[in-house]
């Protein structure tokens, strides 16, 4: 039989082919690790291991009374996967498997830690995840709206306003993110708040960001401003005020308007409308808008850029918005009537000061 002509497949070495196969499998099965981590959080496994510092497998099973003994090997297999992902350390002593936490899980996944991101795992529920099964159908449809609206018939905000459980889970996840990013903001960007007397946190959720700013700058009067069903969940606090309203209609007057992870939810046209309302609310001399959001650098090949692009895809799924490059931000600012801006990178995101 004649040998087939050279093909692209033949030009790839066996080593390259197998490495590529593993990469594809990692993508296809990536959700498995995520759901195993979600289960570990739901079962309080991280807290159990943390309280013991180092815990044997048998002792862990004894503290999971609702897990039948015959499922002990399955628990170990889950722990082994999570250890490979960096959330646990696994050791051995006298043929007994031992578990302990890593710095990553201690800082970001214990429920009682101030910087815990565990509420984000709570968003892995059908109303949020099922929309991804509709991606191909959504792309081929003529209908307006995001994937969430295509799947559920209403926008994210409409459903959240009538679904207390979904609304609570979303607010908890946003508050968790705010605790992390606002620690960086107040530590690294304190100059941005100097000289201000009043600040309104627009779309500020349950007030986590406004409270962080108020605590870091005692002379600065901070107000959280959001929709009525969100403001109803703001815990009473003497350091901040809470006002309900619609940012598309009006924004309370202040020296500065603060927008954390708000504008990426909206189209360019809606962002211009929001920023014009912000401009109306601040003084021409000395006033500014402070934005905490992504500034994409999609030419940079890095894990940070990959994470930013994942969030961009998330915006496609749940909102009409997107993550933006500096050029796209600049165009929006100019269209809204602003004259200048300053970008200060802070990890995945940036603090952007916008001036009238």
TrEMBL record:
Top-level division of the source organism's lineage: Eukaryota
Start and end residues of each O-methyltransferase dimerisation domain: 29-109
Residues annotated as domain O-methyltransferase C-terminal: 132-338
Keyword vocabulary terms for this entry: Methyltransferase, S-adenosyl-L-methionine, Transferase
SUPFAM superfamilies hit by this protein: S-adenosyl-L-methionine-dependent methyltransferases, Winged helix' DNA-binding domain
InterPro entries given in the database record: COMT-like, COMT_C, COMT_dimerisation, SAM-dependent_MTases_sf, WH-like_DNA-bd_sf, WH_DNA-bd_sf
Biological processes per GO annotation: methylation
Gene3D superfamilies: Vaccinia Virus protein VP39 (3.40.50.150), Winged helix-like DNA-binding domain superfamily/Winged helix DNA-binding domain (1.10.10.10)
Active-site residues annotated for this sequence: 264 (proton acceptor)
Short name of one Pfam family: Dimerisation
GO molecular function: O-methyltransferase activity; protein dimerization activity; S-adenosylmethionine-dependent methyltransferase activity
PANTHER family found in the cross-reference section: O-METHYLTRANSFERASE
Name the record gives this protein: O-methyltransferase domain-containing protein
